[in-house]
Amino acid sequence: LELRYLFDVGGAPPLNPAQQELSAAMIGYWSGFVHTGRPTTRDEPDWPAFDGAWMSLQTDGNRMTGDYEHEHQCPFWAGLKPG
Predict the structure, then answer these.
(1) Contact call for residues 2 and 10 (beta carbons, < 8 A)
(2) Is 72 helix (H, G, I), strand (E, B) or coil?
């Protein structure tokens, strides 16, 4: 799903203004990584080395979070059995 934020995939509906800002941030982080080996970009939070927290890229702002398991309901999904 993130590809449409990084590339013009054609056929997808246009990004709204918040999605355009997220797209610019994602492209900035990728460009910084390609240029320096670190995902850095101007006007966005630093993306530090992994220490148990993740960078969450969202349309309402990018931030570090350590609550991935709870936020994405991992225990629920892990408890599902194939049927």
Answers:
(1) no
(2) coil
- How far apart CA 79 and CA 12 sit, in angstroms, is 34
pLDDT tens-digit map of 19-35: 999 999 999 999 999 99
Token pair of 32 as six digits: 């910084």
HEC-encoded secondary structure of 12-45: CCCCCHHHHHHHHHHHHHHHHHHHHCCCCCCCCC
**Dist. CA 39–CA 19, nearest whole Å:** 19
Is the model's pLDDT at 74 over the cut of 80? yes
Residue 54 CA, chain-centre distance (Å), reads: 9
- The residues that bridge with 54 in the sheet, in sequence order, are 65
